[in-house]
């Protein structure tokens, strides 16, 4: 039985136009994300077989595959919900107290100096990720602050214990059919569809987590 399943999109394929066209959303979700789900489940089966046979010759590759596919599944599951229609249904702009996300807005200002400075850092981090990867706003539980991370592929260059709350997919399959090689234009456009209500929900959940590391 499969452990992981592909989540349904929280909107239809056309909901994020004109920022992301329906063809990209359909291919990205139904093909690419689905492949990560299948990859994670397949790798778990292979690990189970290795345990049963005490055959560990491929353990390094299996562990790497599990990290790759599982992280891809998790990041994409966050990504879909991090976005909302730019047509007046909650997407875009910046977090404001009037929208019920004032605590998130204050945390961004405290961690980065201002929303504008945060936006600039996450935009640059996303657009300059080497090769394939992600730009991520994450909650770091030891300091209780927000940080920006660059994720290479799906799981590299990440502070241990950090919890993603907002992710920008900078893999070519996320934008190339529409934006060609202009990754920067895609990242800039992404700000029009950020679902701050969802980001705030993830921030509040992350804050409620109890760090298991003490100094």
Automatic annotation (TrEMBL):
Top-level EC class: oxidoreductase
Catalytic activity: 2 superoxide + 2 H(+) = H2O2 + O2
EC number: 1.15.1.1
Alphabetical list of PROSITE patterns matching this protein: SOD_MN
Domain Manganese/iron superoxide dismutase N-terminal: 4-84
Keywords: Metal-binding, Oxidoreductase
One GO molecular-function entry: superoxide dismutase activity
Binding site for Mn(2+): 28, 76, 169, 173
Entry function: Destroys radicals which are normally produced within the cells and which are toxic to biological systems.
Membership in a protein family: Belongs to the iron/manganese superoxide dismutase family.
Protein name in the entry: Superoxide dismutase
């Amino acid at each position: 039985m499969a452990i992981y399943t592909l989540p349904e999109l929280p909107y239809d394929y056309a909901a994020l136009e004109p920022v992301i066209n329906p063809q990209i959303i359909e291919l990205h979700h139904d093909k690419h994300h689905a492949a990560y789900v299948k990859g994670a489940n397949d790798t778990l089966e292979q690990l189970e077989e290795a345990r049963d046979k005490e055959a560990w010759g491929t353990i390094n590759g299996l562990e790497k595959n599990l990290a790759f596919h599982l992280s891809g599944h998790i990041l994409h599951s966050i990504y879909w919900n991090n976005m909302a229609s730019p047509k007046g249904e909650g997407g875009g702009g910046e977090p404001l107290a009037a929208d019920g996300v004032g605590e998130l807005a204050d945390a961004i200002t405290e961690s980065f100096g201002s929303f504008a400075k945060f936006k600039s850092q996450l935009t640059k981090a996303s657009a300059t990720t080497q090769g394939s990867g992600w730009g991520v706003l994450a909650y770091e539980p030891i300091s209780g602050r927000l940080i920006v991370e660059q994720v290479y592929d799906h799981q590299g260059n990440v502070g241990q214990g950090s919890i993603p709350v907002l992710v920008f997919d900078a893999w070519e399959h996320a934008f190339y059919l529409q934006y060609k090689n202009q990754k920067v234009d895609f990242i800039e456009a992404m700000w029009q569809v950020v679902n701050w209500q969802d980001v705030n929900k993830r921030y509040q959940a992350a804050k409620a987590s109890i760090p298991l590391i003490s100094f």
